[in-house]
Amino acid sequence: MHPMLTIAVKAARRAGSIINQASKNLDLLTVSKKSHSDYVSEVDGAAEAAIIKVLQAAYPGHAILAEESGQQGDHENSEYQWIIDPLDGTTNFLHGFPKYSVSIALKHKGVLTHAVVYDPNLNELFTASRGGGAFLNDRRIRVSKRTKLDDCLIGTGLPFRDLTHIDAYFAMLKDLVPRIAGIRRPGSAALDLAYVACGRYDGFWEIGLAPWDMAAGCLLITEAGGLVGDLEGNETQLESGQIVAGNPRVFGHLLQVIAPHLTPALIEAHRAAKS
Q1: Half-sphere exposure (Cβ direction) of 78: Cα atoms closer than 13 Å
Q2: What is the DSSP letter of 172?
Q3: Cα 165 from Cα 2, distance rounded (Å)
């Protein structure tokens, strides 16, 4: 394992320990609301602080982009940027619904190079390094081999931060549901993308995500042999917040189903992300 990935794993496990301990006393947590259906707890902050402490101790010159504390470090001059979601699926966590994760990714000169998604409930550790493959608890993983959409299990996430594109999303959903074997919406995008990487899902799409929701999962999928992009298939998902992922055949199928429902506003978001 690359030394930088080893440090990321250490940080993710440290955060996972904090999350697991807090899950025993959910009623005692202090919770605030960032926006509609978007919550943050003291656990998010504590887990993020623990991650940043581990990363900065090892690499004090690296820049950081974290969900709760924002940007830290010299983003203009540092070649390295850590992208952190300390608790992806906070609403699930606060309700005792055991689908949430820790997500940590590293960019080098703007390119994703290392990724960790950690499920503290199941102690499942997904890791990837560019050119080195993707792994689940030290076992090599690959995307699924299904080619027919009607055999596929697809993951998704409902828009919740911004409802601007919700009508377009439901049009996509309505068109897709009769064509597939099933659809799931657990509520942690980072974990959903990890499930695509290991073949539990055949594909995934969502609208309105943040970079920290997607960064680690994107590298996991590509290193597991899959494809990932925006709703038009371009590699601007981290900038646009719109994502489609899957094995190579399912990726193409999903883009075809989604295409008729791309509104001018969604297309403009992709164009702006590329410029």
Answers
A1: 17
A2: H
A3: 40
Could you tell me the two tokens for 88? 């992806």
The CA angle 206-45-216, to the nearest 5 degrees, is 40
36, 82, 83 from 71: Cα distances, Å: 23, 10, 9
Per-residue pLDDT of 115-130, as tens digits, reads 999 999 999 999 999 9
- Tell me how long the chain is: 275
Residue among 169, 177, 215, 208 at smallest CA distance from 194: 215
Structure tokens at 42: 């003291």
pLDDT of residue 272: 76
Sheet with 182-184, edge to edge strand ranges = 182-184, 153-157, 203-206, 243-246, 227-229
For residue range 56-99, list pLDDT tens digits in order.
999 999 999 999 888 887 778 899 999 999 999 999 999 999 99
The residue among 117, 120, 121 whose CA lies nearest residue 212 is 117
Alpha helix segments (H runs only) across 95-228: 166-176, 189-197, 211-223
| φ, ψ for residue 17, nearest 5 deg | -65, -40
- Which residues, 6 or more positions from 198, have their beta carbon under 8 angstroms from its beta carbon? 126, 134, 136, 141, 142, 143, 224
Which secondary-structure segment (H or E) carries 49? helix 42-58
DSSP helix/strand/coil, 93: helix
Query: By percentage, how much of the chain surpasses pLDDT 70?
Result: 97
Q: Can you give the pTM of this predicted structure?
A: 0.94
